[in-house]
Design goal:
This protein has 253 residues and is an alpha+beta fold. Helices cover 31% and strands 29% of the residues. A 6-stranded antiparallel β-sheet has the order 4-5-6-9-8-7, with helices on both faces. The protein is built from 9 helices and 10 strands. Helix 2 crosses helix 4 and helix 3 crosses helix 4. Strand 8 and strand 9 form a beta hairpin. One of its GO terms (molecular function) is DNA binding. It comes from Sphingobium jiangsuense. InterPro entries: Bact_HTH_transcr_reg (IPR050679), Chorismate_lyase_/UTRA_dom_sf (IPR028978), Tscrpt_reg_HTH_GntR (IPR000524), UTRA (IPR011663), WH-like_DNA-bd_sf (IPR036388), WH_DNA-bd_sf (IPR036390). Keywords: DNA-binding, Transcription, Transcription regulation.
Length: 253
């Protein structure tokens, strides 16, 4: 318990404390640490356990509720949602780079180099520019312990200008964009996401083990440097029954 408190209260962390608390509680919920869904700790208990304010606890719980992991009822406390209520899908927040990295830590991307290739026309159309040259292509499945079937098929393409760095990327060592930063010395300053419901192509269906043209959630991401140059572009296809995207929206005023 003391180790957990130390983790949450660690000084110098760039991550908001409520996010650290949410990550810790998410891991406990998904590991089955609370077999009785009604025995989830109260706000007061969490404040004492982690040495944080009630505001921090409430923000963390709000994140977990957005993900569909818990339900909060006034007067009756917090109840853990059963997997069946979540549709058996992974409810994942991907609203910022920190949450994308957490998603990567909570799962494994088993990718392999596919050689060099022209950027697919649909990607070139999306970024609105001529995508000349041959890009380094990686393809792989993202899997999560305890979940049957992969949660995504991802194709990633590295800009031709990053030839030296791309050729040194090691499969399954770290996220591709973190390896790009380390190997090239270029920092990724912005990530854009385009989310669309699409039917599974023959290739996607075969890799994910789903019927052809079954519904998938496609997340198309562009990783850009400070000048706006695209360093990496990736497309992840998630089976509709295995993944749900969540995000946090703050109400102003």
């Amino acid at each position: 318990m003391s180790a957990t408190v130390g983790k949450i209260a660690q000084k110098g962390s760039k991550k908001p404390r409520y996010q650290e608390l949410a990550e810790d509680l998410r891991a406990e919920i998904l590991s089955g640490e609370y077999p009785d869904p009604t025995q989830f700790p109260t706000e007061s208990a969490l404040c004492a356990r982690y040495g944080v304010s009630r505001f921090t606890v409430r923000e963390a719980l709000r994140s977990l509720q957005t993900e569909g992991l818990i339900q909060r009822r006034r007067g009756s406390g917090t109840v853990i949602q059963p997997a069946s209520a979540r549709g058996g899908a992974l409810h994942q927040p991907l609203s910022n780079v920190g949450e994308i990295l957490q998603y990567a830590r909570d799962s494994k991307y088993l990718f392999t180099p596919m050689g060099k290739a022209l950027l697919p026309k649909k990607f070139a159309v999306h970024i609105g520019e001529v995508a000349s040259g041959r890009w380094h292509h990686f393809r792989g499945l993202r899997v999560r312990q305890g979940q049957s079937g992969p949660i995504a098929l991802t194709d990633a393409y590295i800009h031709p200008d990053l030839e030296a760095a791309a050729s040194q990327i090691k499969p399954n060592e770290d996220t591709i964009f973190r390896q790009i930063e380390r190997l090239s010395g270029i920092r990724i300053a912005r990530v854009t996401q385009d989310i669309q419901a699409v039917p599974a192509s023959s290739t996607v269906a075969a890799e994910l083990g789903v019927p052809r043209r079954s519904p998938c959630l496609r997340i198309l991401r562009c990783y850009l440097d400070a000048t706006g140059r695209i360093l990496e572009i990736s497309a992840s296809h998630h089976p509709g029954d295995r993944f749900a995207y969540t995000m946090h929206i703050e109400v102003e005023g």
